[in-house]
Write a structure and sequence with these properties.
The chain is an alpha/beta fold. The protein has eight helices and 13 strands.
């Protein structure tokens, strides 16, 4: 299974570090020419590859690490996202609830990425915390996941474990997704909760 990160801001770089720590290949892309950030990507690790957006969307699993407002622009990169898992790492803080039509923000992302399967995850931690080694005092840092497709959520849970995190599944987007989303000027109850799981 191939992986890509769309967005190379603080959150995108934090995710890239998690892949690099575990020797897992991942492509990183923005709307810019990859030459403009290839050197920075290379400093993170040899498994991080700067590519064009068109190349990145060929991956099976895509981490959407852009501003929420930019998700519709990214979604135009393919006519259909059939067979793709999109991990929604965005936060819609500051977006008026009316613009979301009363839905969780991940549902809006799912509508934009027609045909794809959206799993909400990796968005509740700040970039500085997400960038750290998730091994903490003998435990593993928790990442929350929510999705409407159990198989896709399980695949991302497995990947989260490979990246060293402890995945906690919250259920469907309309339920668990509300706990890890932002909208208007409010944050979901689990946003910024930096928890560690001890096995």
């Amino acid at each position: 299974m191939s992986h890509a990160i769309i967005g190379f801001g603080p959150v995108g770089r934090a995710l890239a570090r998690a892949f690099a720590r575990n020797g897992i290949e991942v492509s990183v892309a923005t709307t810019r020419d990859p030459a403009s950030f290839a050197a920075e990507a290379a400093t993170i690790g040899p498994t991080i590859r700067a590519v064009t957006l068109a190349e990145a969307v060929a991956a099976d699993v895509l981490f959407l690490a852009v501003r929420f407002e930019a998700h519709k622009d990214v979604a135009t990169a393919l006519p259909t996202w059939q067979g793709k898992i999109i991990v929604d790492v965005t936060n819609a803080y500051g977006v008026p609830p009316g613009e979301l039509g009363g839905r969780p923000s991940a549902k809006a992302v799912a509508q934009a990425f027609a045909g794809g399967t959206v799993v909400k995850g990796f968005n509740h931690l700040g970039a500085a915390v997400l960038a750290q080694d998730p091994a903490v005092q003998g435990g593993r840092r928790v990442v929350f996941l929510a999705g409407d497709d159990d198989g896709a959520t399980e695949q991302i849970a497995t990947l989260a474990e490979r990246l060293g995190f402890a995945p906690v599944k919250l259920g469907a987007l309309a339920e668990g997704g509300l706990l890890v989303q932002a909208r208007g000027n409010t944050w979901g109850q689990l946003i910024f909760q930096d928890l560690v799981k001890f096995d």
